[in-house]
Glutamate-ammonia-ligase adenylyltransferase
Amino acid sequence: MTNLASQIIRVPRLFNADQANEARMALPGLAPELTELVAGAGSVSPYLLDLMQKESDWCAEAFLDPEHAVRTVIAEAGAVADDQLSGHLRRGKRRIALMTGLADLAGAWTLEQVTNTLSQFADAACQAALCAGLRTQIKRGKLAGMTADDAQNGAGMVVLAMGKMGANELNYSSDIDLICLFDETRFETDDFHDARTAFLRATRAMSGTLSDLTGDGYVFRTDLRLRPDPAVTPVCMAMEAAERYYESLGRTWERAAYIKARPAAGDVAAGDRFLTALRPFVWRRHLDFAAIQDAHDMRLAIREHKGLGGPITLPGHDMKLGRGGIREIEFFTQTRQLIAGGRDADLRVRGTCDGLAVLAEKKWLPADVAETLTDHYRAHRTVEHRVQMIRDAQTHMLPQTEDGFARLAAMMDQDVGDLQSDLHRRLAEVHQLTEGFFAGSDSSDADAPAPHVFDSAVLDRWLTYPALRSARGADLFAELKPGLLARLAQADKPAEALLAFDGFLSRLPAGVQLFSLLKVNPSLAELLIDIVSTSPELAAYLSRNAAVLDAVIGGDFFSDWPGEAALRDALSETLSAEDDYETQLDATRRWAREWHFRVGVHHLRGLTDARTAGAQYADLARAVLQALWPVVVAEFARKHGSPPGRGAVLVGMGSLGARRLTATSDLDMIVIYDPLDVDASDGKRPLAARQYYARLTQAMITAMTAPMSQGKLYEIDMRLRPSGNQGPVATSLASFESYQMTQAWVWEHLALTRADVIAGPQDLADDFTALRTKVLAKPRDRSDTLREVAEMRARLATAKAANGTWDAKNGPGRLQDIELLAQAGALLQGETASQIETGLDAAAASGIISDDDTQTLKDAYATCWSLQSATRLLSATVLRSDQLGQAGKGFLTRSLHCDSLETLKTHLAQTYDAAGAIIRNALQVYDAAPKTGPKRKAP
């Protein structure tokens, strides 16, 4: 028990002596501290004086433990007969208003305690009034199948608290904003009309119970206008109709309103389901910087409508809607939540102070800005409460007169001059901190015109591009254009940079979101121009997937690489939040796309080298396979039952198995399953084990390759499975063992040196790894093996000749040639060659090449890989240097540590010749014409 007297830290100064005496007379015999508080409160607030006179008996006991007293009032809000509810709730409201007012003036309760108490009573009052209204309709038989007991749970209807009530931030004399909905699925078609009518009547009854002005006053003024299109829709809507409205016509201000929405009364579970369904509308998956302009337009419209423009002058200033006021802070917070809340669920908090805190924690706001705005918000709300509790008026205006300011200062226990100075400082600082965010500034960091004169024909055609066809897109781009041209002018070859940017802009399907992002984050323009000037491939990718730029400002774009396990866990968490299979596939694509872009940008800007980028691309691909495989299996099992036997593993082959990929790599895989002795699955539509795993594998391929709304994930290549494209897409462990031990070609054993299990049951993975070791350890004739390798090299040279200097993969002395020799060395040593360097060491150990030659080949492989990685980032096909701009050429030469393109060409030619000669000499004795007869071609 905590006595109010012991909590007092301040009291209002006496303002009206007569009212102070009346307050003392209403509540005699109190402790001196309470008497002083009562007298001060009564002297400044006629409303509180009236409440003390009406509730004097209740106050005497409530002062002993005010928190318990208000909890009791809230708990007993509905504890009377329906015909007594109106007076009972009004009496409860008087008591809540009186105790919160006195505790607030005394400094005994924080702002949050005051607003929480008011909000909790509003919840209880809505619940009591709704139940009474529903009971009436149930008695009349208008809600089929419902009994009086169902009214307590809303009978299928929910009241959503919006605005300050939703955030538990109700002010002292606040309206309550409500949206009333009912779950139409609870009723048969024939009963729908009666149910809808009953809910409308229950809603009107609830609103009347709360807001009608009687001899006992009112409970809460109720506003039902936040529902969809209130001019034409009923006061209680079916949830399905509301969902359709928001999906097709919902506006940014409605999204912002739903940040604070919560079920307050009725069928809370149905309300939670509705808010979950609405989540994609409120929280966009990409960073939504376009919301800033929407919020700014709304602020300007409110100012114009209310006549609140102009400089800050205190008399009559609106603490809510005026310049530097409460709404400025709320808009600022909510808009930033809308921008990033789709990507980060932690930002989806209802309270304004909570929102500022989490924005600072997540680095979306500087900590000092969040702290300052939080302090001003609490101070503004405190002043708002004071002006409202004078006469229980729904006002947010500062006094117009000197006498009014004197009263307010007395309530705040301050001198008038100090109060006015503090108010002006706070309002001005809020305006300064928020206005720049909304109104923005010149996104160019170069106000002067670009010194370079660009081709006007290129500039003139920009307005014909899809991204600029909307008025809003064109307006945003007009603001960005001077800064973009200034940056393009700083390129080594401005004309080339302009054409590269022109190509990007022409492919961009829409521009509002990207242009909004660039406007608020000018530094991104430099990165964008750097990308489009350097890498046509990455620029084309970016034009199709501009939302990946979200990741750049998402907080960890330039942090350390998390690694395969952390990536897998992050994607698994993302997928667990989605309950629809197609949504999960799209979510995987969005997630992978951003990380893929990150690897490319880091490589392009020299933050990582080719070897690191290759490992990171592989980490990403493996993480995607590991997280998505269980999702595909679960979806397939839903139709056909659990996998028969021990399940299946995904085995990475080639570069995937070796954990080294490029920006455009396909994924080489095989699927190995073990049905044990289970013949078929046990689902609704059972399948024979062989058919089950074949179709499961195809489902995984589809999940990876299907061109969904977010594009494809990866291309999948399964030609390394037994019998190649002619064989089944999934192979049983027993069949795979039999094939590898008795029928496989040497090239298939070579491929097995780079095989690595990526996903699937651990016991089956262990068995496959043991089998791989067993196959590689088979005794084999050195001469026969190397002859096969020599023949394979000859076939590859015929089938895949080098396509110029920039082809790092095909041809003597290049990637595939060196890999083949390394795999041969590993096979002869009974080892794996997941790292080509290890395979080359094995080749040296088996006497195929010398130690000196080994190092030469390692160096050559590193050079070829750097070239392959760089060229795949620049172009999806074989690179043509005559189509590269200056920036692209610079990236290529930097990546291979050469001064010029000519020097690089010479270096590459020497590297290919030296490596090719070593491999040719090593295999020369076995290099005969290919044997005749049937031969399955190596992929």
About this structure: Residues 610-640 form the longest helix (31 residues).
